[in-house]
Amino acid sequence: MTLATNRDRLVTQVLTGEVWPALGDRHAYRTDADGTPFVLPGMGGVTLGVHPGDPAAGYAADHLEPGLSIRHREDRPNMALQFLSCIGNVVTVRSGPAAGATGRVIGQHAYVLADFAEEELSQVCTGDAVSVHAAGQRLKLTDHADVVVKNCAPDLLDALGLETGADGRLVVPVAARVPAEAVGAGAGMYSEYANTDLMGAYAGQSEDLSLGLERLRIADVVVLEDQDHRYGRGFRPGYTTVGVISTGHCRLFGHGPGPSTLLSGPTGAFDIRLDDRANLSNAFAALTGLGASA
């Protein structure tokens, strides 16, 4: 059953940006939680071979950003791109050999991140222009006034299997539960910007760092316990946040695979159900089958 929302009162804006190049530092090395220096690929550019449903951890990478890393070269237009782009929005390549190819936003980091088919990604180059049909900010759930929606395309709600349960709570399928102690970098920031890095998925490092999150996948829907992301990001007992893993493996201490925020509110407002199918790969397939465009 389709959730009652204010989707008919939302507007769509066409935002523009470009595929931003990967950036390096002249000092090269960073140091992981065990004191080991490393130089690895990660943020920016076009990242091939990693898509929704693939493992989030275990790569020779740091701050892995799947697909396209998109920003605007001017600061204020870039903030509009960051704040207004929502997970599930359609992204179109506007220049270069892949012009006309379409994908979808899978989250935010330092950039807006978008997934495309592998054969299309391989044709994209840094500097290629893209557009985002941005819609979803200020989306409200009419029957769930305590739940604040963030960064979510209107059609994605149904594709993720959200519904109102018999007891009136919001039923949300998730692939994993994340304990509050796993929350690292990103706490204290606006929940419309970037994401929340999760500690405890440091594959190949000291075992005492593990919080059992090494099995997370790119684009998994997860629940963050005791996290309030309604008006920022912070620890608050009795509150629950639902997000989507938008970035992958990190070696830098305090960082890790990170969810972009989708929903936040009092824990009692949610009926969280574990479901291994709770991943954007399945939601996007459902949207494609419906011919959805937002």
CATH architecture of the largest domain: 3-layer Sandwich
Question: Which sequence of strands runs across the widest sheet?
Answer: 1-5-8-7-6-9
Number of helices: 4
Rg, Å, rounded: 18 Å
Descriptive report:
This protein is globular. The chain has 2 domains: 11-134, Thrombin, subunit H (Beta Barrel); 148-290, tm1086 (SG structure) fold, CATH 2.102.30.10. The model is unreliable at 290-294 (pLDDT under 50). The protein has helices at residues 75-84, 118-121, 156-159, 280-290; strands spanning 13-19, 30-31, 37-38, 46-47, 67-71, 90-93, 102-108, 112-115, 129-134, 148-149, 163-164, 170-174, 176-178, 221-228, 234-247, 258-266, 270-274. The chain is mainly beta. Residues 29-158, 164-282 form the DUF4438 domain. It holds the Pfam family DUF4438_C. It comes from Jatrophihabitans lederbergiae. This is DUF4438 domain-containing protein.
